[in-house]
Design goal:
By secondary structure, the chain is mainly α. About 75% of the residues lie in helices and about 0% in strands. The chain has helices at about 1-25, 35-65, 75-80, 95-120, 125-150, 155-160, 175-185, 185-210, 215-220, 225-240, 245-250, 255-290, 295-325.
Amino acid sequence: MGQLGVELFFVLSGFLIGNILIRAFMDSDKFSLADVRQFWIRRWFRTLPVYWLILTADSLLYIWLHIQSYEYPRFFYYLFIQNLWYPHPRFFFGESWSLSVEEWFYLTLPIFLYTASQLFKVRNKSKFLIVVFTTYLLVFVCIRFINAFHPINGPDIDFGVRKVVLFRLDAVMYGVLFAWLQNFRPVLLVSVKNYLLPVSIAGVMVIYYLLTPEGVAMCASSSTCVFIMNAFFYLFTPLLFSLCLPFANGIKQISSRFWTRFFTHISQISYSMYLVHYSLIYIPLSIFSHARSASSVSLIYLCYWVAVLLLSAGLYRYFEYPVMQLREQFKIPRTKKA
């Protein structure tokens, strides 16, 4: 389920980023480098400082614990190049592979959009956006398809494709496309949302089966199936998740105040939770705990979640949120339409 959770994370992130870029593009007379810089400032003040903090903490912790399985120099992680076109290291900060995909997406899509707006005359902004977004997506779909003939990272689809930035930048794009539909074809989305939801659920169930040992064995039994998995599996996985977005986006309010506050709080600290839950908490806890009975395992599991929630909440309140507020000092005025 962890694999599917990351794919859902990509789609939701793309939906958010898509709305931000669409508003910036539509509000400007001409999409400029100032708009690109403003986007980067807002995203990177949100993501980079806390990531670098936890990366440094993980590095020091692993040195203290004498865990020395470092395949690549540590500075690779600070620049998000540890899995640019080669497999992500297996033994250090394993969850950071998806963050590399996110950060390179934040870097490349605005550049792609800006370059296209400079090269071609924009007559209809909404149509221009969908052409640019679709072209960006197809570029990386084609790269993954070409790689499937002779995989450069070997036959392991998990480390060789799923966790490689070059082969996954389209994953975030499906959320962006639904952001475009929400902005420019909202009536269409409302009319089809109840049909797309069951397709999404059924498709995700098939994807889940293909990730089980039985599904993996079935796919590995045929060279044709291996090719199809390498070429198309990570096209359909985020796409199927994105089909549930119209239905989920139509849920405007939860009647329970408790659950509203709960989900709001979790959404605020979710990035910190993702950063600390595994390398910073789970691995040290698994090293020092030697539970044998069911009760002790349950207690340790409870302690794990308490530690994740408390550390994430503290990290958000005392570091992540204060740093995010600094980005207002770097706000760049935009030239808006008259």
